[in-house]
Amino acid sequence: MAEFNVNLRGVGAVSVIDVKGYLDAHTAPELENVFNRLLDQKQYQVVVNFDDLKYISSAGLGVFMAYVETMRENEGDIKFSNMKENVYNIFDLLGFPILYEFFKEENEAIKKFCDSSKF
Amino acid sequence: MQQSDNNAALRNFSALVDFSNLINSSLDINFTLNNILLTCFGKFHTTKGLIALLNNDRIFEVHASKGFNSLTLQTFPKLCADDYDSDEKLADFISANKMQVYQEIKSSEGLKGLIILGARLTNKVYDDSDINFLRTIVNVGATAIENCLAVDKLKRVNRDLDSKVNQLSSLFDLGKEFSGVLQIEQISKLLVYSLIGQMLVSKYAVVSCSGGVISFLENRFDEEHLQKALKSCNKDFFDKVFTRAEFTDELKPFAEVGVDLIVPMKIKNETKGLILLGKRKNELVYSQSDIEFVSSVGSLAIISIDNARLFKETLEKQRLEKDLETARNIQTNLLPKSIPAFSNFEMAAFNKSARMVGGDYYDIIKLDENNVLFAIADVSGKGVPAALLMANIQAFLKSICKMKMHLADATNLLNDLVAENTTNGSFITFFWGIINNEKKELTFVNAGHNPPLLVRNSQIIKLKKGGMILGVMQTIVPYLSDIIQLESGDTIVLFTDGITEAMNVKWEEYSDERLEAFVVDKTNLDSKRLLEEIKQSVEQFTVGAEQSDDITCMVIKVK
Cβ contact (<8 Å) for B193 and A60? Predict the structure, then answer.
């Protein structure tokens, strides 16, 4: 069975989710649990770090669609960082770049949150 | 003069070579068009120009322009490839914008587009040699444009292909997942994640309409309104896909909730569920290939959902069967576990339910050293309801035994108690008796039960005396009892109608006559053997047929 790991850590007011391995229909519920935890804790500023993610299926992408509206309604967002090219291609293919912000590095995404909350 | 002409020709030639090298170095359509325009501007000293290319419908669309503001560009007329040069709108546009020349861009495949150039700063008109030069530039450019367009097309096809491959791998992924999951909630969750990931939607619903019951497996629309919309349509109406453009008046309520796409999930042509999707976040409409994807995922999902439902039903059935198994054990324990022994007679009994539990009952209770009570009963109906009533009468009987009442009075009381507990016309046929070992005396009451057979010297005495069946009404006419002095060699056979009405494969009954003849013939056997032979006789008679009723039999032999 494909391995998937998800880890949650806080960087200031921003929550960073590290995803690792294979995110598909089977492992999507694990990621969903993390998002539910964030909603419980009213943490709406989220960066997902894809550095160790090897594969994502459309069910995996679906999780981000399922939560982004709630985050945005609460003045937060889901931003993506450190994506490998093969993973990005799938996001690109399904038209995610017009709906989400992608960053090369995690700290750029975090900085974007910090900059916008100053105003 | 000749010299300067030569120089001009040389300049033109080297400009052309440069131009050709430049535009063939790139496959970017904008870069290519831009350079064609710039080259013309440099050569003819003009400040205005545009290139329009034919689209798939063979209509010209402006792809590159210089010196125009965007408002003016919007006035570019809708020209068709076939008759553009006779179209007045082109002449109007040219004169309104003070354009001077236009030239067709043609490749080996035919007309590709138009280049239109404005007045020259030098106010010189375009002479023949200028037009010739323009034609040459455009000819060189046409090939480059064609290459660029071909590459663009290839990129698009490639992307479409990628997206198809992605959809296929999603389907494959889901097919694997669905087959391993047996919980409906989880299946619909997986289904939804795939759909919203692939289609970029945030409003969606998965509706199950199996067995005429509409239920939401997932829903992100307004539940109340969607419920209403669904109720207004018969499920057979949803036998095909509906996109927003195809919504009829009946489907208006769905549009009001925000549904853009309705896809039925079918099993064997019957709609078992619906996938409802809202507007796509990327503002695209659902393409044929998107709809195919949604349909395919839906088909996979509904089969799994149906399987999960069947699995749940099977589990439930297994649980019920287990309960019945327990009930059967309890019921078996209600029957006597051992049969007491007496000096002047011996007894044997047998019971077999047609189903897991049954409504037949027999009991043998030693009242004291000298007296034994035996009873046989048949509750109307079969299965669980009959079994419950059987347990009820067993409890009453056990209690009444301890009261040392006369058998007829005890029957009156038993009937009153049972009548309080029966509803819907259920009743019990019942026979009981007490044998005194010392006196060899039988006292009995028959409450509507098939009369037991007392076989004496090959003659049959039927034990009929008593009263009506138990449970129909409170006792008004008291039950009567009878006393019979038993003799050595007497055989008493008690049975339920499961024996006499046992059917063979030809739908014939075993019958009272057959039973009577059989026991008269076998009175020399002891009680156990006779019971065994009766059992075998019935089994042989009914071989190949299903046991339809509970069977109980008891044999008492006087020594």
Answer: yes
